[in-house]
Amino acid sequence: MGGCVSYFVPSRRKKLPDPEAGRVQAEPPKLGQPLEPEPKLPEPEEPKTIYVAVMGATGSGKTTFINIATGSNLRVGMGLESCTNEVQMSQPFMLDGKRVVLIDTPGFDDTTKSDTDVLKMIAAYLQTMHKQEKLLSGVIYMHRISDIRVGSTSRRDFTMFQELCGKEAYKNVLMVTNMWGEANQEDALAREQELREKDIFFKPILEDGAVLLRHMNDQESAHKIIQKLTGIDPVVLRIQSELAAMNDITQTGAFAQLNRELMEQAEKNRQELEKLRVELEEAAQAQDEETRMELQEESEKNRQELEKLRVELEEAAQAQDEETRMELQEESEKMEAELLRVQNEAATLASEYQAELRRIEEQLHARAG
């Protein structure tokens, strides 16, 4: 019978992991040995600052726009009087992850400063920004849509604005109309179209890259306008380039334009003054003639009154003489009538006496016979 072969297979016991395996024994720091600094986390990147200049005529709503957009409390002018008589910055605010600062500027028709002073002020501020490498992301030009017409002052201010910016910067310019709530909607739309399509207004600057927008007097509308400038490359204005090259404001295009405007205004004032002088002389002559005529008329009136009085006096004298004559004639007639009466009575008496005398003679004669 076959035998049964038995094999002994030793069992495989699972080896437990060594808890000390892989552990590095840290040596205590030696005395006097400096500790290694912990690695620093990267600091958060500082948000980019966007600078935007806001320009426009006095009373066009520049400061109001800035206060609405930024939450600042810059002083706002009322009526035609200017409160922005210096360049000032708004408090910064965040928009699209960027730090935005708006720059408020006075208009060239400022009520407290001359146009030359305003140009010097704006030019000096822009030149300082350029030296400090604080470039403008854009410029906003404010215009009231409520204005019935664009007067000479507004056109002069806009012309100066164009000279400050230069055609090369128009792509960073926003032409913003405001005060829509103060105008009839149909009239406002007609004015907007006129601003867009007429060469004497915004058409040239719009054709060279500027954009025409509306501000509806709320923060959302203001931020949408500013967002047009937050994502574009900054720009150097013409006057900044000119001052960087020459450092002489009298050699800039803006100063030349202002000088032309002032010369034209001076000539216009001279003509107006000459016209006024002529009118005053004519008025004086007219006044003299009027006075002469008045005196002549008064003299003639007095002469007529005097003649009338003379005639009346003569007539009165004549009337008095006639009255006296009539009285004398009447008295004479009375006297003649009385004399005639007396004569008649005397004749009657004489006749009666003769008759009585004859009667007595007859009676005596009869007695004697």
The overall strand count is 7
Distance between the termini: 275 Å
Major beta sheet, specifics? 7 strands, mixed
* SSE sequence, one letter per element: EHEEEHEHEHHEHHH
Low-confidence stretches: 1-14
The class by helix and strand makeup works out as alpha/beta
* Proportion in β-strands: 5-15%
Radius of gyration: 59 Å
Give the SSE map:
Blueprint: E1 49-56, H1 62-70, E2 88-89, E3 93-95, E4 98-104, H2 115-131, E5 136-144, H3 152-165, E6 173-178, H4 185-197, H5 203-207, E7 211-214, H6 219-230, H7 238-246, H8 253-368
Parallel strand pairs: 1-4, 1-5, 5-6, 6-7
Antiparallel strand pairs: 2-4, 3-4
Helix pairs in contact: 1-6, 2-7, 3-8
What does this molecule look like?
The chain has 369 residues and is an alpha/beta fold. The protein is built from eight helices and seven strands, in the order E-H-E-E-E-H-E-H-E-H-H-E-H-H-H. The protein has helices at residues 62-70, 115-131, 152-165, 185-197, 203-207, 219-230, 238-246, 253-368, and strands at residues 49-56, 88-89, 93-95, 98-104, 136-144, 173-178, 211-214. Strands 1, 2, 3, 4, 5, 6 and 7 form a seven-stranded mixed β-sheet that branches.
Which features characterize this protein?
about 375 residues; alpha/beta; rod-shaped
Brief account:
With 369 residues, the protein is of the alpha/beta class. It has helices at residues 62-70, 115-131, 152-165, 185-197, 203-207, 219-230, 238-246, 253-368; strands at 49-56, 88-89, 93-95, 98-104, 136-144, 173-178, 211-214. It is built from eight helices and seven strands; from the N terminus they run E-H-E-E-E-H-E-H-E-H-H-E-H-H-H.
